[in-house]
Design a protein that fits this description.
Blueprint (H helix, E strand, L loop, with lengths): L2 H13 L1 H16 L6 H4 L8 H7 L9 H10 L7 H4 L4 E6 L10 E5 L2 H7 L1
Antiparallel strand pairs: 1-2
Length: about 120
């Protein structure tokens, strides 16, 4: 990809960032609306879930809310998918460590083989 193509892509995605964010959230909800961490909040709503339902029903959370599940996933390895379905229906590829800048301690971040993940990393 040339520099001009990269700049054009960046400009295209930032011109209407709110629309792009909404489309991304909707795609994630369509694919992952039934994963374990969302079930307690969304089970009484009919699928597919929209962004407004998600915002209304699912409370804000932080890494610590999922850390035990993520550590268990890392301990069990990529061949076990019991806890993987807690976060995503997509296959777990690997883990990354965050830079740790917010808490001075790196966090273990699961990377799933999903369309949004591929879009972010390309």
């Amino acid at each position: 990809m040339t520099d001009d193509e990269i700049i054009a892509k960046l400009e295209g995605t930032t011109k209407d960032a709110a629309r792009h964010q909404l489309e991304t959230l909707q795609a994630i909800l369509e694919r992952n609306g039934g994963v374990g961490y969302l079930r307690p909040y969304l089970r009484s709503y009919p699928a597919p879930f929209d962004a407004a339902t998600f915002r209304r029903a699912v409370p804000l959370s932080c890494y610590d809310d999922y850390a035990d599940h993520i550590c268990r996933m890392a301990d069990e390895g990529l061949d076990h998918d019991h806890d993987q379905r807690f976060l995503s229906v997509d296959p777990l590829v690997c883990f990354f460590y965050s830079s740790g800048t917010s808490s001075m301690k790196p966090k273990l971040i699961p990377y799933f083989d999903s369309v949004p993940s591929k879009a972010i990393s390309s």
